[in-house]
Amino acid sequence: MSGPLTLSEASDKRLMPIEVPLPTAQLARKRALSEALVALALAGPAVFFLVVLFFLPVAAIFVIALTDWRFGATSLSFVGLSNFREVCADAGFRASLVNTVVYVSIVVPGTVILGLAIALVIEGGRSCRGLYRAIHFLPFMATLTAMAIAWEALLHPTIGLVNQALAALGLPTANWLRDENVALPILAVIGIWQNLGYAMVLFLAGLKSIPQELYNAADVDGADLWIDRLRTVTLPMLGPVTMFVVIVVALRAFEAFDTVKVLTQGGPGRASEVLLYTLYRESFEYLRTGYGAAVAVLFLAIVTTLTLVQVRFMDTKVHYQ
Amino acid sequence: MNAGISPSRLPLSVALLRHAVLLTTGTLILLPFVWMLSLSIKPPGEIFRASFSFWPDKLYAVENYTKALSETPLLRYMGNGVLVCTMILLSQILVCAPCAYALAKLRFPGRGLLFGLVLVGLLLPHQVLALPLFALGHQLGILDTYAALIFPYIVSPFGIFLFRQFFKTIPDDLVHAARLDGVSELAIVWRIMLPMALPAVIAFSIFSLVSHWNDLFWPLIAVRDQSLMPPSLGIMAFKNEEAGNDYGPLMAASTLVVLPLVIAFLAAQKWFVEGMTGGAVK
């Protein structure tokens, strides 16, 4: 690197007349200025919309959370942290928070373990890989609102396939979406059904990136059985991908809304109310704007924490590689 | 090339076991789709008669689908979806590509800051912004119009990020050569950068179209007028009107809403996987 640099410096000194540096410097400055102006013109619209549609609203949500503003009212006054105090004292919000944690803690392990297992089985052989991948990925891009309606038909207490099958097998049936003990776990099952294919394709990509030499080395070391190769090579090498999948699926699970809105409206009682549904209902149905904003701030705090864990983790991964 | 975790040739019993496992999980995954299709071609009598059969004794498809299309403005919903998704995608490409080019190829003060803002925007959960955006839409007097469905998504931090990453891999020499030929900077974006970044454009387009076709949260807030509803909101309105008494047409309508994406996905599976995972999977 230092070779060509010294060479060009030497040639500069030899070839350039005394008076040239000043005009070149001016020219360079002028060129830099025009490049900056072009860049600002090109980025301008995006900057404008980013500020108006992303950053001012984020700032606004914090301000609104500190006021007693109700949507449509012309005046407002600052009330400090009383919205947050109200939210935290509200048994309904606490129920919603607990429900969300329960939902996430069913969806994340379920999605990650099943997604990994299916990816391993698909990658374990050669035939029909594309077909199996397509089938398992399908729910992830199918319109969830419409598919929730299909799930409701499947779970219908009398005409649903699930209860018919259970009855035929002599097992107890349930009114899945109206029973306060099972409504939330059932929504979590639908969440797993939807996100499993997403985890699967991320694991498939992770599996493809494991170098073949590691398996060869494991062979030499006597890892003849599939389970040995899995334990000594595959799972350790999938560590970083697994961490990524856990966080991304957790973020998606925290943002669950469609199935709750379509299937249970948070019920029965508050048994299946999750954070985003609380945010929606308080802000846009009850029009409790300040309260809704405080919920939004708390929701943002949770999601941001998760994201920072992810970013920090991805950083360490980059350092080590 | 060896198959990695498994030897390239599986013993027959293991291969059969693999297919048995995947066919079982695959069937469970497809069950809601199959049940939806099955109910959509059954007459009411057969729907309410508890039975395992997926294929009806008396085919009632024409009646159910006709009813779905005549009792609800389903085609209108889907037309709204196409219109809104197209407008969102066009404006996102129009706004994001020049910005991504500036970030990737030009030097200007504040470039690092701008890229930082894009990254922060990328990580923000959009639902948090709904309340201020609703107030903004109200101020502008555009709530309950097509504009209300479109305006929050005019710019996409993900679009800027993805295009920037791709533009950076395009050689600088190409840009210099174009400048020497007198091509303007904006023309460089449209005529050189975007065509060369076609894979990124396709992946982003799929991501954007699928997300906004499927979105329920914002349309629920932004519009009340039934004639403006996109498919997800429309199908929910249909369900609430029907109160679960007319399953056949409701399932037919659900099928029609899901169908365009499913067909597109089956036709271009690789692109969909790449687009929906944010380019994390190649």
Entry keywords:
heterodimer; A: 321 residues; mainly alpha; MetI-like fold; 2 domains; 14 helices; 76% helix; 0% strand; flat; disordered N terminus; B: 282 residues
Describe this protein's structure:
- The complex is a heterodimer of chains A (321) and B (282).
- Chain A is an all-alpha fold.
- Helices cover 76% and strands 0% of the residues of chain A.
- Chain A has two domains: 19-65; 87-320, MetI-like (MetI-like fold, Orthogonal Bundle), CATH 1.10.3720.10.
- Chain B has two domains: 12-70, no CATH class; 72-242, Orthogonal Bundle (MetI-like fold), CATH 1.10.3720.
- Helices cover 72% and strands 0% of the residues of chain B.
- In chain B, α1 crosses α14, α4 (74-105) runs antiparallel to α13 and α13 (231-242) packs antiparallel against α14 (247-267).
- Chain B is globular.
- Classes of the chains: A mainly alpha (321), B mainly alpha (282).
- At the A-B interface, α2, α4, α5, α6 and α7 of A face α1, α4, α5, α6 and α10 of B.
CATH architectural designation of the largest domain in chain B: Orthogonal Bundle
Q: What would CATH call the homologous superfamily of the largest domain in chain B?
A: MetI-like
Order of helices and strands of chain A: HHHHHHHHHHHHHH
Q: Which ranges of chain B are low-confidence, i.e. pLDDT below 50, for 5 or more consecutive residues?
A: none
